[in-house]
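Exercise: predict the structure of this protein bound to pyrazine-2-carboxylic acid.
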Amino acid sequence: MGQRAALLVVDIQNDFCPGGALGVPEGDAIIPRVNRTIGLFGRRGLPVIFTRDWHPRETKHFKEFGGAWPVHCVQGTKGARFHPDLEIPKGAMVLSKGMDQEVDSYSAFQAFTVQGRDLESALHELGVDELFICGLATDYCVRATALDGVRRGLTIRVLRDAIRGVEVKRGDSENAIKEMRAHGAHFSETRGLAKLLPKS
Ligand code: VGL
Ligand code: ZN
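Solution:
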């Protein structure tokens, strides 16, 4: 590949897992694969970056204020916490998104660290031009992030077996996958990834 890769773990939070306020069917089923992949990137010395949906209690993102969604991932609540089984390395970079009460944003490229750094500048600083994406939800944040990444000139590889969709309508995830592929995103599986990544 000859590129510097990083792993982006998208929104694996309680509210997006079964039993949560916006539970993605089988959302938690990807966690063992995601953990193995986090371990692999760590052993190779490659960056692993996490995002979280991080909403104020009142936002146009929520149904009661004109948006599409039930209340979920409200800052500081249990639902907004990362799933307890997700293995987050100490000191890992975490970016939050959805803090604006007025805008409905899904892409990780609209997420920020507590210091106010955005994903694009963080990747640039790390020398990353190839982004592997896993997490939730296929038809929203994963989709928006992959399309945004391609648009910004990155090589985007979505880990097909480590994403799950909300499926407001049946087929939304499959359609999102087709759309990402049509725009130039690549797909791979977590199994066999060890062979695909540079050794260092
Ligand atoms: C998301 C629905 C609502 C996501 C966030 O991150 O995929 N989906 N809020
Ligand atoms: Zn949200």
